[in-house]
Amino acid sequence: MSGIAMPRPDEAVLSRRGEIVRALKEMVPGEGVIDTDIGMRVYETDGFNAYRQMPMVVVLPETVEQVSAVLRYCHENGVKVVPRGAGTSLSGGALPLGDGVLMSMMKFNKVLDIDAANRAVVAQPGVTNLGITRAVEHLGFYYAPDPSSQIACSIGGNIAENSGGVHSLKYGLTTNNVLGLEMVLITGEVIRLGGKHLDSEGYDLLALMTGSEGLLGVVTEVTVRILQKPETARAALVGFPSSEAGGQCVAEIIGAGIIPGGMEMMDELAINFAEDFVNVGYPREAGALLIVELDGPEAEVDHLLAEVEAIARRNGATSLRVSTSEEERLAFWAGRKSAFPAVGRISPDYLCMDGTIPRRALPQVLARMRELSEKHGLRCANVFHAGDGNLHPLILYDANKPGELERAEDFGADILRLCVEVGGVLTGEHGVGIEKRDLMPVMFSEDDLKQQQRVKCAFDPKQLLNPGKVFPELHRCAELGRMHVSKGQLPFPDIPRF
């Protein structure tokens, strides 16, 4: 491993490995437990593959009862658990622990209910993101959040990371499209949050769970909102001489009150990598490429496309092409959605970052990122959700060259610090995981982080669910509950205490 450290394995737990494996095999019989080195090798990393760690044992439950039994056993016996979906996490959120149980939820792979009347689908967490759309498209519906990994990523993983996608600008992230959850707490208790109804009584624990990165519970069922397919959807492919010009065009489109279904941007390096990969006619000579999709009634789409074209021309667009068929629209998006694998063909390794900035800061941040690229001596291809300011810089490096991974990590950390500096945040949709864990103090004060850990303690007081992720320093729950005494004085000394 490089600069990111994980919790030191508990030797007392490792000494009981045989006993733990036997107990798990009783709870999840058949092929539900994997404990051989060769069998566990495929679980040693996730999409953040710069880091690897073999789990102590892997368990693949098939029923809620099995999930409950495993978690209850681990809680009673002090064994750590790392929940895992499809393993596409780009922040190391599903990285195993050497003294922990890796719980894969991929046998929970069924769509349980399609309720077109209520525009809802109930699915198990192992169903892929794209699988939900494919289950309802014959009815004229679709599921809006569409991360680039949608063909592989699981809906449970989307809940963990609050995933977005190219259409989040208009239709929201996962949190805006989830209606209900069934989840199992570390104690084995099964609870339900929300449902098909529009709103829930009491505290909004559903929003708390979305984006909680496996630290609070294990999701076993998801209810999501589906949308009716729009009457018309057309996309414009616009080339600009520079990323700054493209960024200014983005700001003016939003400023004009136009909310595209999707608005994505790529820089020159990413344009050419993607075009080599998919051959869809991207303008190779452009310094930046903007994909703007409008959807809705045909007359509205035609009107808005004319407005977008006028704004683009005012900002120096060097090329502009509007899709004339559904096939062409999908082709425009194919390059953007293939940007990550396209870069993987060019560079032995890359880090995909995930910071979010105010749209107005886009030109400034892109200029600073070019300076950082020169400073660290590494190439960086930029693809991002331009409409909501979610950047995905792809830092190219070769892990076989000594020091390049460390330089790539330093480059990425500088980008994330820059995002916070201009008023943005450390992550938009990939989560914190281990990748951004040690940068959390850049954005949050010690009191902020302690308050977040108190939430963790309410759900998992023994700190057994996915430890080592998100929080740079994990406090014992008892420490967080202590009364703070400053200079011998309790806070608010005039308040009666019982």
Overview of this structure, please?
With 498 residues, the chain is of the alpha+beta class. It folds into four domains: 94 residues, Uridine Diphospho-n-acetylenolpyruvylglucosamine Reductase, domain 2 (2-Layer Sandwich), CATH 3.30.43.10; 118 residues, Uridine Diphospho-n-acetylenolpyruvylglucosamine Reductase, domain 3; 109 residues, Alpha-Beta Plaits, CATH 3.30.70; 89 residues, Alpha-Beta Plaits (2-Layer Sandwich), CATH 3.30.70. The chain is 35% helix and 19% strand. The radius of gyration is 24 Å and the shape is globular. The protein starts with 10 loop residues before the first helix and ends in an 18-residue tail after the last helix. One of its GO terms (molecular function) is oxidoreductase activity. It comes from Stappia indica. Its cofactor is FAD.
Total domain modules = 4
The overall pLDDT average reads 93
CATH topology of the largest domain: the name is: Uridine Diphospho-n-acetylenolpyruvylglucosamine Reductase, domain 3
How many H/I helical runs?
18
Any idea of the CATH class of the largest domain?
Alpha Beta
Summarize the entry for a quick read.
The chain has helices spanning 11-14, 17-27, 37-40, 64-77, 129-136, 155-161, 168-171, 205-209, 243-255, 268-278, 298-314, 326-337, 339-346, 362-376, 404-421, 440-443, 446-459, 477-480, and strands at 33-34, 57-59, 80-84, 100-104, 111-115, 120-123, 141-142, 178-184, 190-194, 218-225, 227-228, 232-240, 262-267, 288-296, 319-322, 349-352, 355-356, 380-385, 390-397. The chain is of the alpha+beta class and 498 residues long. It folds into 4 domains: 11-104, Uridine Diphospho-n-acetylenolpyruvylglucosamine Reductase, domain 2, CATH 3.30.43; 111-228, 2-Layer Sandwich (Uridine Diphospho-n-acetylenolpyruvylglucosamine Reductase, domain 3), CATH 3.30.465.10; 232-340, Alpha-Beta Plaits, CATH 3.30.70; 347-435, Alpha-Beta Plaits, CATH 3.30.70.
